Amino acid sequence: MLKEQENQTNNKEFTEECNAVLRAVSDAQYVIGGKWKLMIIISMARGNKRFTEIQKQVSGISARVLSSELKDLEMNGLIVKKVENGYPVTIEYELLPYSHTLEEVVGAMTKWGMQHREKIMSEGKSSSGKINNKQ
Question: Gene3D superfamilies, per this entry (predicted)?
């Protein structure tokens, strides 16, 4: 009986810890998930500040999707939209200091992505379409 109560307590702690991890990952995915958000942040970190520069750098993204993603990133406190009145009006997007908290995440994803590409290429699976060969 005592052992059964101990197992229930351990299972409850495990479940609570698992739920906490799942919530945290879900929160992160909400902010930076999807195909484009991290790509936009990386492009901006490399100096692209104007809408057209970002769109050109992040190949395949449509203007409508880029506009929506920029709004989401702004809403989540990662970037700011700066409008300079004049003729013509210029709009630039700038990373906020909070965006630098993603450097470790991007670094880990870069390392894993390179490792995974190498693994797949060495296994000869690149021709099956599992890895995008764009450089």
Answer: Winged helix-like DNA-binding domain superfamily/Winged helix DNA-binding domain
| 58 φ/ψ angles, rounded to the nearest 5 degrees | -90, 85
Report the C-alpha gap between 80 and 97 in whole angstroms: 10
- What pTM did the predictor assign? 0.78
Specify if 131 maps to a domain.
no
Count of the separate structural domains present in the chain: 2
Q: Based on the fold, state whether residues 26 and 74 are members of the same structural domain.
A: no
Q: Using alpha carbons, select from 53, 58, 55 the residue that is nearest to residue 38.
A: 58
Please indicate, yes or no, whether residues 81 and 22 belong to a single structural domain of this protein.
no
Same domain assignment for residues 50 and 87? yes
Q: Is the dihedral of CA 38, 43, 49, 54 positive or negative?
A: negative
> Could you say which DSSP state residue 127 is in?
G
- The radius of gyration computed from the CA coordinates of the chain, to the nearest angstrom, equals 21
pLDDT digits (tens, 9 = 90+) for 79-115: 999 999 999 999 999 999 999 999 999 999 999 999 9
For residue 49, the domain's CATH number is 1.10.10.10
pLDDT band at 13 (very low <50, low <70, confident <90, very high): confident
Q: Calculate mean pLDDT across residues 54-63.
A: 97
